[in-house]
Amino acid sequence: MVVGLTGGIGSGKSTVAGMLAAHGATIVDTDAIAREVVEPPSPVLDAIHYEFGPTVLTPDGRLDREAMARIVFADPRQRELLNRLTHPEIRERTLARIQELPAGSVVVVVVPLLFESGFDELCDTTVAVIADPDMRRSRVAQRDQMKEEAVAARMSAQLADDEYARRARFVINNDGDIDRLTRQVDAVWHRLAAG
Hints:
53% of the residues lie in helices and 12% in strands.
């Protein structure tokens, strides 16, 4: 079974993924794969360099994530271009990882842009993690040492919680109470395990 796990920045996707892993799920994190596909030498990185210019590379030829983020979160067209350059390779590697796993595995694929990228169509079911926007901003600011305007730009580029709730089969509300979160994850796991 392939489970697509999504949610906005700071919603708690990684925490929920960790809890599902503790139940026995295998986690495939597309954020980690997205970092892999631009590690030099990389045709994806070459394409990004060609389209966006030398300012998105560090002096040692790696992707400058902060410079890239400043560009793509300020302009939806640039974000779409980056997605067109990176998503096919991310999708291919993600599917390859899933296919390597034993039959009968419960595979949780963490995909921030699950619905936007169409990856939900490759999943047997979907789970969205939502949380209060102020709480999400606070988590991201603390975790990533990110300025408030940078957090706001990322949040505005993602789906609203009501859209996640409308499109996902299961919704987990991560309002900050770990006991409540644990109960919700346990309930979802039991539903997944039941098929």
